[in-house]
Design brief:
It is a single chain. By secondary structure, the chain is an alpha/beta fold. Helix content is about 40%, strand content about 15%. It is built from 14 helices and 15 strands. The chain has helices spanning about 15-20, 20-30, 75-85, 95-105, 130-150, 155-165, 195-205, 225-235, 255-265, 280-285, 300-305, 340-350, 350-370, 370-385, and strands at about 5-10, 35-40, 55, 85-90, 110-115, 115-120, 150-155, 175, 210-215, 240-245, 270-275, 285-290, 295, 310-315, 330-335. Strands 3-2-1-4-5-7-8 form a 7-stranded parallel β-sheet, with helices on both faces. Strands 11-10-9-12-14-15 form a 6-stranded parallel β-sheet, sandwiched between helices. Strands 6-13 form a two-stranded antiparallel sheet. Strand 10, helix 9 and strand 11 (about 270-275) form a beta-alpha-beta unit. Helix 3 packs across helix 4 (about 95-105), helix 8 (about 225-235) crosses helix 12 and helix 11 (about 300-305) packs across helix 13. The longest helix is centred in the middle third of the chain and has 21 residues, at about 130-150.
Length: about 400
């Protein structure tokens, strides 16, 4: 019997490379044929370095979410039919719908969808286009995803409940795998030397010993960017507030640099844009803040901060609330409340010992619940169950209980 074949589908190559690489490399290294299918991008060529075949899908999948994404199904169907995978595993709203459509037409044995957060469509946006797109997506999920998917993976129980309660999937389809995982070796405080930390502070004009409060994320309103900047304005002079991330030009919720520059001009915050060396920034950070009310899965940026041993201040909202045990590794605050953010951050700034203890606990929680190795094993067990046979990979006993 030939090796098992797995086709991973996303609307962006970066989504597969950054979030799914540990899973794909685990399969490839242990005998499976693995294909990453996405529109071509800056990271597409890197898959080959890990024994993974990238297949370029030239399509409209990168356009804003909505039923128009189904128009790309024909191109994906031809690819899937040619590869004849045992499993098609799609990630994200658009890819889930298109992947289900293609898997049905190509007669793929097993199709799996992953809902990695519900995003802007379900964040209560006043944008009429986003609200209509959310309704259309629900209709498409009932017509295409629910009948075809052997399993629908959710990263938090709120999203799973949303789908089941509205009839977007059957209860027996729903699988809970918390997050896409975080690499505890890559994100470890010991990976960044004292010299590197000092150099980063010098390069950005941050004084030695000055507390740093950091947020990392796309510049979307529902990510809580404006709330973070208002927090920075209120606590100006008590810490250096650092915002890392750039606009999302295809998202109607995206802020522009012109909307934010006043905060940098008045000295409230440091706007750094996109940064490659996130570990270095987290290594010099004292408090990580993520005031999102975007419908997150489990936010990867928060997991990275936890792995780096930081106390977390985030919102009591789907996905975000999964990362914090209140009073142990951080503080949960109501969404959109700058007052609550100010109170939480100010109390942590005033108590270095509390910050240190919470940071230690964050690392422990990341290791116990969100490490890449745990997430990979949970997926392997799911694949094995759906295929009804052993994988050409080693699955540790008891992984399903992790």
């Amino acid at each position: 019997m030939r090796d098992l074949r797995f086709a991973f589908v996303s609307h962006l190559d970066v989504n597969l490379y950054r979030f799914r690489l540990p899973l794909m490399t685990a399969l490839a290294a242990l005998g499976a044929d693995v294909f990453a299918i996405s529109p071509p991008g800056n990271l597409s060529a890197r898959f080959a370095d890990h024994g993974i075949h990238h297949v370029a899908l030239v399509s409209a999948m990168g356009r804003p979410s909505g039923p128009s994404g189904l128009l790309t199904g024909g191109g994906l169907t031809r690819i899937v039919r040619g590869l004849a995978p045992d499993i098609v595993h799609a990630f994200g709203v658009r890819a889930n719908l298109v992947g289900a459509w293609a898997a049905r037409r190509a007669a793929t044995p097993v199709m799996i969808a992953t809902v990695s957060g519900l995003g802007s469509l379900y964040a209560g946006s006043p944008n009429r286009v986003l609200r209509l797109a959310g309704r259309a997506t629900n209709i498409a999920a009932r017509l295409v995803l629910k009948p075809e998917a052997a399993a629908i993976v959710f990263q938090n129980p709120d999203d799973m409940g949303y789908f089941v309660d509205r009839g977007l999937c059957k209860l027996e389809q729903a699988e809970l795998i918390m997050s896409s995982g975080v690499d505890l070796e890559e994100f470890s405080p010991g990976r960044v030397s004292l010299e590197e930390r000092a150099a980063l502070r010098r390069d950005w004009g941050i004084e030695a010993g000055e507390p740093i409060v950091t947020m990392v994320g796309r510049l979307l309103r529902s990510k809580g960017v404006l709330e973070f900047l208002q927090l920075a304005e209120r606590l100006r002079g008590k810490a250096r507030f650092v915002l890392i991330g750039g606009p999302s030009r295809r998202n109607p919720e995206s802020l522009r640099w012109g909307d934010l520059e006043i905060y940098q001009e008045q000295g409230s915050a440091l706007l750094c844009g996109f940064q490659e060396n996130i570990q270095h920034w987290l290594a010099i950070t004292d408090i990580f803040v993520f005031p999102s009310y975007y419908r997150e899965g489990v936010p990867r940026t928060v997991l990275e901060a936890m792995a780096m041993g930081l106390p977390i201040v985030t919102t009591d909202s789907p996905g975000c609330r999964e990362t914090v045990v209140p009073g142990e590794n951080g503080v949960l605050v109501p969404p959109r409340s700058v007052d609550a953010l100010e109170k939480a951050v100010a109390s942590l700034l005033d108590d270095p010992d509390l910050r240190a203890g919470m940071g230690t606990r964050s690392r422990e929680i990341a290791a116990a619940r969100f490490s890449s190795s745990i997430v990979v094993e949970q997926h392997l067990r799911l694949y094995q169950r759906l295929l009804g046979k052993r994988l050409p990979v080693a699955v540790s006993p008891g992984a399903s209980d992790l």
